[in-house]
Amino acid sequence: MSIIKTEELAVGYGDKKVVENINIEALKGQFICLLGPNGSGKSTILRSLCGFLAPVGGKIFLKTRDISQIKTNTLAETMAVVLTDRLSPGLMTGFDIAALGRYPHTGFFGKLSQEDIEKTWEALHLVNAQDIAHRFFNELSDGQKQKLLLARALVQEPEVIILDEPTTHLDVRHRMEVMNILNTLTKEKGITVILSLHEIDLALKSCDIAILIKNNKILDYGPPEDIIQEDTMTNLFDIRSAHYNEFLGTVELTNDFPPSTFVVAGGGTGTRIFRALTKKGYGVATGILHENDVDYYIAKTIGTPLVSEMPFRDIREHTVKVAQKQIEQLERVVDTAFPIGSLNKQNIDLILYAVSIGKPVYSLRSRQECEDVYGEQAANVQTFENMNEMLQSFSSPEALTSPAVKATVGV
Ligand SMILES: Nc1ncnc2c1ncn2[C@@H]1O[C@H](COP(=O)(O)OP(=O)(O)OP(=O)(O)O)[C@@H](O)[C@H]1O
């Protein structure tokens, strides 16, 4: 069932159009998220959808009725709004704030009936805010206030809730809680939720429909699984210093330092090392990674040169040679203590090769394990108990190889 529909909607201020040609439809129980850079018009669209801002052009329908023809009180029976504006409610308690949402249902004097009181408590329980109900709103944290504003929206018993950046200022726990509550509302109560968010990964993992906004228009609109590709987020936000991995849902800082360290990784053991080296300014090359390994996805997203092999295949002679060539040109080799199996045992040979040509090898395996794995050559491998200890023993990143090396390893 269609709850909100727009036709050739243009939103903005006065004559100025901020976003135009908006043709979207929100169905019952859908979780819809607006994504876009600062100033792209997310708040302007949300304000228009809830009738606070008159459209510059086109139409908005709330369950087939033109929203401009609906009185505010009638609108409030169907739609609840949680905007970012700070409330200064004087000496009101958490309960009072939540109960404000009953106003479309109370009589002329706004007196709460027993039923209103019960419904307010119900909403407070639903957002897990019953313990702050008797405290003054002004004295609560942003996360606690946000929960009460959600409760206020819920007691309205709306069919649609519109929220502008409901997770701003919240810590990770409250952020997850708010998103969980909203998700439950859509799935269990059939409420349609339309919101804007800045956390890309959270948005894409939670929402049924993403609306991507940039340069005055809707770039794309649909289920994130269908519309988000590898470069979608980097293009949407014009990100230069980082890349978004749609498969893992993470943003990784780009590493474009000249490679100095070859990280022999696998099974996810390389990920935190790639990130740590990137943070400290060391260039990285890595291998030999199977193309279904999490280290492969992270290394690709970070943008490091990498030597890879097809998933579930033995590492071929040729691939080993490519990795050896890279090692020859770099300063050092790191053994991440990757798990060893029949498909990647050549990575052990790779480390032995590095030792044989005199490259410093740094290992995160225990001394005993090194001896088991590298035999006599273990004496030429330095072991470290943890990554930071290992990084401290590296020469400073300024002393790294020249950009020419980067060219030779094929960046
Ligand atoms: N009251 C206003 N009068 C005129 N222009 C406005 C007004 N409010 C916002 N704008 C402009 O409209 C454009 C879109 O702003 P909007 O707040 O909708 O963006 P947003 O995507 O929500 O941004 P953010 O992610 O920073 O919250 C911006 O250029 C902004 O300067």
TrEMBL record:
Top-level taxon of origin: Bacteria
Q: Which SMART domains match?
A: AAA
List where the protein spans the membrane.
none
| Alphabetical list of Pfam families matching this protein | ABC_tran
Q: Provide the alphabetized UniProt keywords.
A: ATP-binding, Nucleotide-binding, Translocase, Transport
Q: Answer yes or no on keyword Transcription regulation.
A: no
UniProt keyword annotation of Translocase present: yes
GO MF terms held by the record: ATP binding
Task: Outline the extent of the ABC transporter domain.
Answer: 4-240
* Classification via PANTHER family: HEMIN IMPORT ATP-BINDING PROTEIN HMUV
User: What is this protein identified as?
Assistant: ABC transporter ATP-binding protein
> Which species?
Aliibacillus thermotolerans
Q: What is the lineage of its organism?
A: Bacteria, Bacillati, Bacillota, Bacilli, Bacillales
